[in-house]
Design brief:
With 158 residues, the protein is mainly alpha-helical. It has one domain. The protein has a two-stranded antiparallel ribbon with strand order 1-2. A hairpin with a 2-residue loop joins strand 1 and strand 2. Helix 1 crosses helix 6 and helix 2 runs antiparallel to helix 6.
Length: 158
Amino acid sequence: MTVIQINDQNLITRLNKVARAMRDPTPLGHAIANSFLTVVEDNFDAEGRPSWAGLSAVTLARRRPGKKLFQSGQLRNSITTQVSKDSVMIGTNDPKAPTHQFGAEQGEYGHSSRNTPLPWGKIPARPFLPMDKNGNLQAEAEQAIWDDVDHFYKTIFD
Protein backbone atom coordinates (compact mmCIF):
# COMPACT_ATOMS: atom_id res chain seq x y z
CA MET A 1 0.00 0.00 0.00
CA THR A 2 1.21 3.49 -0.86
CA VAL A 3 0.30 6.39 1.41
CA ILE A 4 -0.68 9.50 -0.51
CA GLN A 5 1.25 12.66 0.23
CA ILE A 6 -0.37 16.08 -0.09
CA ASN A 7 2.41 18.60 -0.71
CA ASP A 8 0.36 21.82 -0.65
CA GLN A 9 0.61 23.19 2.90
CA ASN A 10 -2.39 25.50 2.35
CA LEU A 11 -4.49 22.49 1.36
CA ILE A 12 -3.30 20.50 4.39
CA THR A 13 -4.13 23.40 6.73
CA ARG A 14 -7.58 23.92 5.22
CA LEU A 15 -8.32 20.18 5.14
CA ASN A 16 -7.45 19.84 8.83
CA LYS A 17 -9.54 22.89 9.74
CA VAL A 18 -12.57 21.60 7.86
CA ALA A 19 -12.23 18.05 9.22
CA ARG A 20 -11.98 19.34 12.82
CA ALA A 21 -15.05 21.56 12.33
CA MET A 22 -17.19 18.70 11.03
CA ARG A 23 -18.89 16.45 13.57
CA ASP A 24 -18.73 13.67 10.97
CA PRO A 25 -16.10 14.20 8.25
CA THR A 26 -17.18 11.20 6.17
CA PRO A 27 -19.16 13.37 3.69
CA LEU A 28 -15.89 15.19 2.93
CA GLY A 29 -14.20 11.80 2.58
CA HIS A 30 -16.84 10.64 0.12
CA ALA A 31 -16.40 13.82 -1.92
CA ILE A 32 -12.63 13.22 -2.07
CA ALA A 33 -13.14 9.55 -2.97
CA ASN A 34 -15.47 10.52 -5.82
CA SER A 35 -12.91 13.06 -7.02
CA PHE A 36 -10.23 10.35 -6.99
CA LEU A 37 -12.48 8.11 -9.11
CA THR A 38 -13.08 10.96 -11.55
CA VAL A 39 -9.33 11.59 -11.88
CA VAL A 40 -8.73 7.86 -12.51
CA GLU A 41 -11.46 7.80 -15.18
CA ASP A 42 -9.91 10.88 -16.80
CA ASN A 43 -6.46 9.21 -16.69
CA PHE A 44 -7.83 6.19 -18.55
CA ASP A 45 -9.71 8.36 -21.06
CA ALA A 46 -6.63 10.51 -21.78
CA GLU A 47 -4.32 7.46 -21.81
CA GLY A 48 -2.31 9.01 -19.03
CA ARG A 49 -1.54 12.49 -17.73
CA PRO A 50 1.24 12.79 -18.72
CA SER A 51 0.74 10.48 -21.70
CA TRP A 52 1.54 6.81 -21.20
CA ALA A 53 4.39 5.19 -23.09
CA GLY A 54 3.56 3.65 -26.45
CA LEU A 55 3.03 -0.06 -26.96
CA SER A 56 5.69 -2.37 -28.34
CA ALA A 57 5.36 -3.74 -31.87
CA VAL A 58 4.75 -7.24 -30.44
CA THR A 59 1.94 -5.96 -28.20
CA LEU A 60 0.39 -3.97 -31.05
CA ALA A 61 0.38 -7.09 -33.25
CA ARG A 62 -1.36 -9.20 -30.59
CA ARG A 63 -4.09 -6.86 -29.39
CA ARG A 64 -7.39 -5.52 -30.66
CA PRO A 65 -7.59 -1.85 -31.61
CA GLY A 66 -8.46 0.50 -28.79
CA LYS A 67 -7.07 2.53 -25.94
CA LYS A 68 -4.16 1.38 -23.82
CA LEU A 69 -5.12 -0.52 -20.64
CA PHE A 70 -8.66 -0.92 -21.91
CA GLN A 71 -8.89 -4.19 -23.81
CA SER A 72 -11.38 -5.79 -21.42
CA GLY A 73 -12.17 -2.97 -19.02
CA GLN A 74 -11.29 -5.25 -16.10
CA LEU A 75 -8.63 -2.97 -14.63
CA ARG A 76 -10.64 0.22 -15.05
CA ASN A 77 -13.74 -1.38 -13.57
CA SER A 78 -11.85 -2.80 -10.60
CA ILE A 79 -11.04 0.59 -9.02
CA THR A 80 -12.73 1.01 -5.64
CA THR A 81 -12.69 3.49 -2.79
CA GLN A 82 -13.14 3.16 0.96
CA VAL A 83 -13.98 6.01 3.31
CA SER A 84 -13.74 6.14 7.10
CA LYS A 85 -13.84 9.04 9.54
CA ASP A 86 -10.11 9.64 9.15
CA SER A 87 -9.07 8.18 5.81
CA VAL A 88 -9.91 7.80 2.14
CA MET A 89 -8.49 4.87 0.19
CA ILE A 90 -8.47 4.16 -3.52
CA GLY A 91 -7.20 0.95 -5.03
CA THR A 92 -7.81 -2.21 -6.97
CA ASN A 93 -7.47 -5.93 -6.42
CA ASP A 94 -6.54 -6.56 -10.06
CA PRO A 95 -3.24 -8.50 -10.01
CA LYS A 96 -2.00 -6.62 -13.11
CA ALA A 97 -2.47 -3.22 -11.47
CA PRO A 98 0.97 -2.82 -9.83
CA THR A 99 2.73 -3.66 -13.11
CA HIS A 100 0.71 -1.06 -14.98
CA GLN A 101 0.95 1.58 -12.25
CA PHE A 102 4.68 1.21 -11.52
CA GLY A 103 6.08 -0.72 -14.52
CA ALA A 104 8.24 -3.86 -14.39
CA GLU A 105 11.75 -4.75 -15.44
CA GLN A 106 12.47 -7.72 -17.70
CA GLY A 107 12.68 -10.85 -15.53
CA GLU A 108 11.36 -9.07 -12.42
CA TYR A 109 8.81 -11.87 -11.86
CA GLY A 110 11.22 -14.74 -12.43
CA HIS A 111 11.20 -17.16 -15.33
CA SER A 112 8.63 -19.27 -17.15
CA SER A 113 8.72 -23.06 -17.39
CA ARG A 114 10.66 -22.53 -20.64
CA ASN A 115 13.19 -20.43 -18.70
CA THR A 116 12.24 -17.18 -20.45
CA PRO A 117 12.15 -14.04 -18.30
CA LEU A 118 8.83 -12.79 -16.94
CA PRO A 119 7.99 -10.31 -18.18
CA TRP A 120 9.91 -11.02 -21.38
CA GLY A 121 10.63 -7.29 -21.83
CA LYS A 122 10.54 -4.10 -19.83
CA ILE A 123 7.01 -2.84 -19.17
CA PRO A 124 6.90 0.94 -18.75
CA ALA A 125 4.81 2.45 -15.98
CA ARG A 126 1.39 3.63 -17.07
CA PRO A 127 0.07 5.23 -13.89
CA PHE A 128 -3.70 5.35 -13.72
CA LEU A 129 -4.14 5.91 -9.98
CA PRO A 130 -3.79 9.58 -8.93
CA MET A 131 -0.33 9.34 -7.39
CA ASP A 132 3.24 8.46 -8.28
CA LYS A 133 5.40 5.69 -6.81
CA ASN A 134 6.39 7.99 -3.93
CA GLY A 135 2.76 8.72 -3.06
CA ASN A 136 2.78 12.28 -4.40
CA LEU A 137 -0.62 13.27 -5.68
CA GLN A 138 -1.15 13.95 -9.35
CA ALA A 139 -1.75 17.69 -9.92
CA GLU A 140 -5.33 17.09 -11.10
CA ALA A 141 -6.10 15.07 -7.96
CA GLU A 142 -4.64 17.70 -5.66
CA GLN A 143 -6.74 20.38 -7.39
CA ALA A 144 -9.86 18.21 -7.08
CA ILE A 145 -9.25 17.74 -3.35
CA TRP A 146 -8.72 21.50 -2.99
CA ASP A 147 -12.10 22.06 -4.69
CA ASP A 148 -13.81 19.54 -2.38
CA VAL A 149 -12.24 21.00 0.76
CA ASP A 150 -12.97 24.55 -0.37
CA HIS A 151 -16.65 23.69 -0.90
CA PHE A 152 -16.94 22.33 2.66
CA TYR A 153 -14.89 25.24 4.01
CA LYS A 154 -17.26 27.77 2.46
CA THR A 155 -20.28 25.84 3.74
CA ILE A 156 -18.94 25.81 7.29
CA PHE A 157 -17.14 29.15 7.62
CA ASP A 158 -18.84 31.55 5.17
